[in-house]
UniProtKB/TrEMBL annotation:
The chain crosses the membrane at residues 15-33, 53-71, 91-115, 127-150, 180-202, 237-258, 369-391, 403-424, 463-480. It comes from Arthrobacter bussei. InterPro entries: Cyt-d_ubiquinol_oxidase_su_1. One of its GO terms (molecular function) is heme binding. It is found in: Cell membrane. This is Cytochrome ubiquinol oxidase subunit I. Belongs to the cytochrome ubiquinol oxidase subunit 1 family. Its main location: membrane. It is a multi-pass membrane protein. One of its GO terms (biological process) is aerobic electron transport chain. GO terms for cellular component: cytochrome complex; plasma membrane. Keywords: Cell membrane, Electron transport, Heme, Iron, Membrane, Metal-binding, Transmembrane, Transmembrane helix, Transport.
């Protein structure tokens, strides 16, 4: 066990956990802003209830996301100080803009939105939410600018072995960032769409299960009502939310597909080994592997066999045609070795790894299956959304309990697609933490091996201890967030609007008293 391995596990666990909150925060924030806009324009109560209910879940997720995101800032100094020294002159600008501009605006205006209900003019209150939500979008862009520079360094020159920014415009308009940004936003909307659909399906099913709604002879819903929050407006809240979630999920999948294709073409130019490993393309050719078997972790991958292969698709992903041969792993390996060396430099920064052979092939099990999990989960979520939209045409959902559970668990599919995509992106860059530029749009000679990026003064014991502590704290935060979300989801709109609760409504807020609502201050 080496310090490098533990440092990578630590960063991977904390980053993936934090990223679980990010897409829901961005995607759900945008949808809540649209809901409040509709309420402002129409005055219909259903949009007010939607805004407050989904807004409460948005706030819970945002708070936990902030708490977990703070750790990321300290990772660079604790375990990756050499990396920080190398990229510091470049990362300073986008990270400063993310923290001082985007996050400052986001937190300030979100505070105004939380405490401004009934105190600020409606238009100003709505503008506060839009300012906070758009700031979170810009925050994501600045982070992606920094991450994209690691994938494709531009706008710098090497000064005494370190990259120094010479063209800020090139850094902020990096073609990798410009494609990754919409791809990430569509991924966020896919998460938010599935979130709306799954929870709304549960509440529509609950209304059927409790005998509030029924189905008439024509197969369409007969909306019922009870005292408290479970009235006809409540039905409209869940039906409209479910339909909106399904539509957003389908649009988001189409958007991720289009932008993902653009990303793939860039990767074939900028990081050919990553994409070759993702396709298990061991030899030059045009075919795309649907399923390959063999030792996906082998250095030469000679024993990998494509069981199901579609000719021409790999060429289309790389170049937009069906005939151009794409270089495979066995062709790229000697090219990488010739250009970047066969062994790590004999340098103290590499510690015990100095002089060892460099493995330019990423962990193919991760890149190959990560790429397919990303696409597969996204496609499953989109297909489920289309099926749900068809079912919802009659104004309600079936009484089937297992269908309800499937809809709720379906919320996890786009989360899985997002996580798989990020793991693929980061793991596929190895053995580089800053990838070199083989294509002419980048700055050649700017790269850093991951083995040189770890803090030299941090011991293995310190890394293991911090890894265990971070994992334990994050596990507690996960339990807290899931518990809070489940409590307020089960409570329905009354959990966000205590004034809707009624003592005779046995389902409103699950019997909780108004003064026990720790988030009631928000509204």
């Amino acid at each position: 066990m080496e310090a490098l391995e533990i440092a990578r596990w630590q960063f991977g666990i904390t980053t993936v956990y934090h990223f679980v909150m990010v897409p829901l925060t961005i995607g759900l924030g945008l949808l809540v802003a649209v809901m409040q806009t509709m309420w402002h324009r129409t005055g219909h109560e259903q949009y007010l209830r939607m805004t407050k209910f989904w807004g409460k879940l948005f706030l819970i997720n945002f708070i936990v996301g902030v708490a977990t995101g703070l750790v990321q800032e300290f990772q660079f100094g604790m375990a990756w100080s050499e990396y920080s020294r190398f990229v510091g002159d470049v990362f300073g600008a986008p990270l400063a803009m993310e923290a001082l501009l985007a996050f400052f605006v986001e937190s300030t205006f979100l505070g105004l939105w939380i405490f401004g209900w009934g105190r600020l003019p409606k238009r100003l209150h709505l503008m506060s939410l839009w300012a906070a939500v758009l700031a979170s979008v810009f925050s994501a862009y600045f982070i992606l600018v920094a991450n994209s520079w690691m994938q494709h360094p531009v706008g710098v020159e090497m000064v005494e072995g370190r990259p120094v920014m010479t063209d800020a415009w090139a850094v902020f308009t990096n073609n990798t960032a410009l494609v990754a940004f919409p791809h990430t936003l569509f991924g966020c909307l896919a998460v938010a769409g599935a979130f709306l659909l799954g929870i709304s399906w549960y509440h529509l099913w609950k209304r059927r299960h409790d005998g509030i709604d029924a189905v008439g002879a024509d197969g369409r819903v007969v909306v019922g009502a009870r005292t408290g929050s479970r009235d006809a407006v409540d039905h409209a809240v869940w039906l409209r939310s479910a339909r909106a979630g399904a539509v957003v999920a389908m649009i988001a999948f189409a958007g991720t597909g289009i932008t993902g294709d653009l990303q793939g073409k860039l990767m074939f130019d900028q990081q050919p080994m990553k994409m070759a490993a993702a396709e298990a393309a061991c030899h030059d050719g045009t075919g795309f592997s649907i399923l390959s078997v063999g030792n996906l972790g082998a250095q030469s991958c000679d024993d990998i066999t494509a069981v199901i292969e579609v000719p021409g698709v790999l060429s289309f992903l790389a170049n937009g045609d069906f005939t151009t041969e794409v270089k495979g792993v066995n062709t790229l390996l000697p090219e990488y070795q010739e250009k970047y060396g066969t062994n790590l430099p004999d340098d103290p920064r590499y510690g015990d790894l100095a002089g060892t052979e460099i493995d330019y092939l990423p962990v193919m099990e991760v890149t190959y299956w990560g790429f397919r999990i990303m696409i597969g989960f996204g496609a499953i979520a989109a297909a489920a959304a289309a099926a749900a939209l068809w079912v919802l045409r009659r104004g309600t959902v079936p009484e089937s309990r297992w269908l309800m559970r499937l809809a709720v668990f379906g919320i996890l599919a786009p989360f899985g697609a997002n996580i798989a995509g990020w793991v693929f992106t980061e793991m596929g860059r190895q053995p580089f933490v800053v990838a070199p530029n083989p294509d002419p749009t980048g700055v050649d000679g700017v790269f850093m091996f991951t083995a040189a990026a770890v803090s030299p003064g941090v011991s293995l014991t310190e890394l293991v201890t911090s890894l265990v502590l971070f994992t334990a704290v994050y596990a507690v935060l996960l339990v807290v967030e899931v518990k809070l979300l489940m409590t307020y989801v089960r409570g329905g709109t009354a959990s966000a609007m205590p004034e809707l609760a009624h003592t005779g409504d046995d389902d409103a807020r699950s019997g909780r008293k108004d003064d026990g609502d720790v988030l009631a201050f928000a509204y």
